[in-house]
Specification:
about 65% helix, mainly alpha, about 375 residues
C-alpha cells in the first residue's frame, strides 16, 4: 500500500503538470518552429502530451523492426535505440494489434516501474526506510519517464533485479539480467560490474570456484549482447550500426568524457550547462557515498557517469541518474537535510524538464 500510494500520487501530479504544460505553453513542432498552445480537449489526451521524442522511434521499431526503410535516414537512425523495450512492446502488440503503441507502451512502463519498486522494497530496503527510498526515486527529475513509452522503467527493473540476485550470491542469474539491461540502454554495459565483482571478491567461495563462476557470469552477460549485435547484422546490414550511425545523431566520434569539451565548443548552449551541472552534482554525491556501497555497485554508478559523457555535450543527465539505485539508497540513508536538499533540487529541475518535454523544447534533451 505504501508503494501504491507513492506511485499513484506521483503519477497524478506528473499527469497534471503535463496537461498544464501543453495547455499553457506553445509546443515546438518537428520543424523547429513554435506552434500553438493546445486547447483543453487536446491537452487532456495523453497521446498529445507524452508521445514525443524517443517514444516515436520506439514506436517505429515496435511496429516495423530494425529493417524498416534501411538506407534512408528514418531507417538507419533507428539503430541508435536498443531493442529490448520496443521488442517487448511489439510482442504485446501482436496479441492486441488494435491498441495504439502509446497505450501498450505506457501500460508496460508503469507495470515495469511498479515491479521494480516492489522488488526494491522486498530485497534491498527495510520497511523503516521504504518511504525515504520511494521519495528519492519517485521525486527524481526523470521520474516522469517511468510512465511513458520509454525504456527507463524496464532498465530500472533490470538494475534492481541484478542487484538483488548478486546480493543473494546468484551471480550467474545476475549476469544474464545485466546482459538484458545492456540491450535496453548503453548504460547497462556498466551493470556487469555488479555481479562480476561481487563474485570475484566473494571470500566465502574457494578461488577456483570464484574464477569459474565469474567466467560463467561474463559468458551469460554476453549472450543477450551478442544476440542484439546479430539482430543489427541481419536487419541493418552491420553489427556495429549502433556505433557507426551515431553520426546521424550529431555524435560522429563518441568517446568517454567528450561532453566536457562541449563547454568550450558550445559555450552559449544553455542545455549543456544545465545538464552538465546536474551531472557534476550527482558525481559529487557518488564521491560522498561510494565507500558505503558494495564495490561492484559503486563501479556500476561510475560506469554510468562515464558512459553518459560520450556525446558532444551533456544531454539528458537527469534521466541517466534515475536508475542509479545504489546512489538512491545512499541518498535515502543520509541525514534529512542533505536528502531534502537533493529532493528539492530534483523537483525544481524535474518540473522544468517535464514542461520542456511536453512542449518539445530541446532544453529537455
Amino acid at each position: 500500500m505504501t508503494i501504491a500510494g507513492w506511485f499513484l500520487a506521483s503519477r497524478l501530479v506528473i499527469a497534471a503538470l503535463g496537461v498544464v504544460g501543453v495547455a499553457s505553453f506553445a509546443t515546438i513542432g518537428p520543424d523547429g518552429r513554435t506552434g500553438s498552445v493546445a486547447d483543453t480537449t487536446a491537452a487532456l489526451n495523453p497521446i498529445n502530451v507524452w508521445h514525443k521524442w524517443d517514444a516515436l522511434w520506439y514506436e517505429q521499431i515496435a511496429e516495423h523492426g530494425y529493417a524498416y526503410q534501411v538506407g534512408t535516414p528514418a531507417g538507419d537512425s533507428a539503430a541508435a535505440f536498443f531493442p529490448l523495450y520496443p521488442m517487448t512492446v511489439r510482442l504485446v502488440m501482436s496479441v492486441a494489434p488494435s491498441i495504439h503503441f502509446f497505450w501498450i507502451g505506457s501500460l508496460l512502463s508503469n507495470l515495469f516501474a511498479l515491479a521494480a519498486l516492489f522488488l526494491l522494497a522486498r530485497e534491498l530496503v527495510g520497511e523503516d526506510e521504504l518511504s525515504r527510498v520511494l521519495a528519492v526515486v519517485l521525486m527524481s527529475a526523470g521520474s516522469f519517464y517511468l510512465s511513458i513509452p520509454y525504456s527507463e522503467s524496464l532498465f530500472l527493473l533490470l538494475v534492481v533485479a541484478t542487484m538483488a540476485a548478486a546480493r543473494k550470491g546468484r551471480y550467474e542469474l545476475a549476469g544474464l539480467l545485466a546482459g538484458a539491461a545492456a540491450t535496453t540502454r548503453a548504460h547497462g554495459l556498466a551493470l556487469l560490474a555488479v555481479p562480476a565483482l561481487a563474485c570475484w571478491l566473494d571470500a566465502r567461495q574457494p578461488a577456483p570456484q570464484r574464477i569459474r563462476r565469474t567466467v560463467v557470469t561474463l559468458a551469460l552477460f554476453a549472450i543477450p549482447v551478442v544476440l542484439y549485435l546479430l539482430l543489427l547484422q541481419r536487419d541493418q546490414g552491420t553489427w556495429h550500426a549502433l556505433f557507426s550511425r551515431q553520426e546521424m545523431w550529431d555524435n560522429p566520434s563518441p568517446w568517454p568524457l567528450r561532453a566536457f569539451t562541449g563547454f568550450i565548443e558550445y559555450p552559449r548552449r544553455i542545455t549543456n550547462w544545465l545538464h552538465g551541472a546536474f551531472w557534476l552534482v550527482y558525481a559529487g554525491l557518488l564521491l560522498r557515498y561510494w565507500r558505503s556501497m558494495p564495490i561492484g555497485e559503486a563501479a556500476f554508478c561510475a560506469g554510468v557517469f562515464l558512459i553518459s559523457t560520450q556525446q558532444e555535450a551533456f544531454h539528458g543527465t537527469y534521466r541517466y541518474m534515475l536508475p542509479l539505485v545504489p546512489l538512491s539508497l545512499a541518498i535515502s540513508r543520509d541525514n534529512h537535510r542533505v536528502r531534502h536538499w537533493i529532493i528539492a533540487l530534483n523537483l525544481v529541475f524535474g518540473v522544468l524538464m517535464l514542461l520542456a518535454f511536453v512542449t518539445r523544447n530541446r532544453l529537455t534533451v
